[in-house]
Fold:
Amino acid sequence: MGQNSSKPPPSSTQHVFTSESPVSFSPDLVNALQASPETDSTRSKDLELHIQRRVHAELQRLDAEHTQRLSDLQQQISSSPDPTTESTLPDAKTPDQSTSPGGPDRKAAAEGDKLRDLGRQSVQKEIDALKEKLQRRKMKEEVVQDKAVEKAKGEVVNCLRLNDRRPLDCWREVEVFKEEVGRLEKDFLGKVMD
Structure:
């Protein structure tokens, strides 16, 4: 026992397959294969370079597509009418900007004002969304700051620190903690349902 090696002897690692029909290769093929400077490593390098070129081309195509989409959206935003203004058509009350003094400059300024208004609206929407998120966080913080839950949590942590080799000895503290969390959940649901 233990005297034999787990590896087979080296002579049995070579596999020879015999075919039922004779296989013959033309001398031109044999000469071409022997004369070829291509090795496994050069083939793998060529394959790697080919893959890298295709990935690079695909990334450039995607980048161009995204750039085109971005420019289309920017063009669409700049050409869309401003919803905050009453009307984009010239009224009898407002003189035509192209015929008024300072025509094209005044028109460009009006378009700049439209863009600023759009920017203000989007910033205001973001501010409102952030305020809403902040209100939700405050609500969560109020829930977490319950004194009884914090006390029960502290007792569980202290017990686990004292009984680090026997955590099952802290079952009483865990039950108290579960009861406090259950009470807190009931209170929260009562607030939400009312």
About this structure: The CA atoms of residues 45 and 51 lie 10 Å apart. Residues 103-144 form the longest helix (42 residues). DSSP finds five helices and no strands in the chain.
